[in-house]
Design the sequence.
């Protein structure tokens, strides 16, 4: 099944409104971690933080040991990270039990290490995967941040990729006191077209975090758009996940209702099938000089092939030092039309 094996499904949000302020969805992940920390179920949570390094937006891992540190790490990070390089040493150096939050590929790598490293196995109490379509290289956010800094006439002080209801807004704060908020599409227009996508994402088929105890992500089903509180889709896969989720739920930290699998699938109806279908990208890859192994052997329809063609063309375009500057010179309405065309083809049955 596209979603993978699961035990329970929920639509949830942090009961405490203050725990939802900077969340990309309903803050259920933050509420879960805070509750487990306060109940002494874990001693820390490995999280990813957005930081500003030499006026550039980057993401780095840390182990949060307090409620505030967990809240400081809220929000999506659409920029490449170094999970194996940063996270494993942090876990090894930490004295205590940890919950680990990562992308599906991170959790898969962590699961391999748990199987062969007793030290890591004994420390990791919970694996949480964040539903992921793909991630982007630093070149994309560097270009976007340069545009924002030019508008503000000041270096960056802080940045959030996405916050607020539904798709939300990006938020950038600058050293001169200026704050700029723009629709998330200011960034996602390029990201959704796979400009500057990480290469590893082309060979990945795991959209939902198959190796996690709990997977968390947005449910973009249109019927939820008018809900006053945006909620997090929760996929619980293991008994460990059930036990720790119930512990947080009983504490009142999380408000949850049962979700149907059809809601999960409807909410990811366009991106999840494309992500899974590595076979389509495998067919197109030689045209652009890529090698993409086919590890799913999925059926490749004409429109899946065409969507893969668009994706790899945009990838190769953004890698061209001769032509990639043209991407940001194209009128945004033209790029939007291109994106809508891609989405339209992607949603064909």
Sequence:
């Amino acid at each position: 099944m596209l979603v993978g094996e699961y035990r329970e499904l929920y639509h949830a949000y942090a009961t405490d409104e203050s725990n939802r302020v900077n969340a990309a969805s309903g803050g259920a992940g933050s509420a879960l971690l805070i509750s487990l920390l306060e109940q002494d179920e874990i001693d820390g949570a490995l999280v990813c933080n957005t930081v500003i390094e030499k006026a550039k937006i980057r993401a780095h891992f840390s182990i949060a040991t307090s409620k505030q540190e967990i809240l400081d790490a809220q929000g999506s990070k659409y920029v490449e990270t170094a999970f194996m390089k940063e996270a494993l040493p942090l876990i090894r150096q930490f004295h205590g039990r940890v919950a680990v939050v990562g992308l599906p590929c991170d959790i898969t790598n962590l699961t391999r290490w748990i199987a062969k490293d007793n030290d890591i196995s004994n420390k990791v109490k919970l694996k949480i995967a964040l539903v992921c379509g793909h991630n982007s290289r630093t070149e994309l956010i560097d270009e976007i941040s340069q545009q924002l800094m030019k508008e503000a006439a000041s270096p960056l002080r802080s940045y959030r990729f996405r916050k607020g209801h539904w798709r939300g807004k990006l938020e950038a704060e600058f050293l001169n006191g200026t704050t700029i908020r723009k629709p998330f599409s200011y960034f996602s227009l390029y990201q959704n077209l796979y400009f500057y996508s990480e290469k590893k994402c082309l060979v990945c088929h795991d959209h939902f975090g198959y190796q996690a105890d709990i997977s968390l992500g947005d449910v973009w089903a249109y019927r939820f758009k008018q809900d006053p509180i945006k909620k997090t889709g929760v996929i619980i896969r293991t008994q460990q996940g059930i036990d720790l989720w119930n512990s947080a739920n009983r504490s009142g930290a999380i408000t949850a209702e049962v979700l149907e699998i059809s809601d999960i699938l409807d909410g990811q109806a366009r991106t999840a099938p494309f992500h899974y279908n590595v076979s389509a990208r495998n067919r197109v890859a030689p045209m652009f000089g890529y090698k993409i192994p086919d590890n799913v052997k999925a059926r490749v329809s004409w429109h899946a092939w065409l969507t893969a063609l668009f994706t790899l063309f945009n990838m190769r375009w953004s890698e061209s030092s001769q032509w990639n500057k043209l991407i940001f010179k194209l009128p945004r309405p033209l790029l939007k039309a291109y994106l809508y065309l891609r989405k339209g083809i992607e949603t064909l049955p």
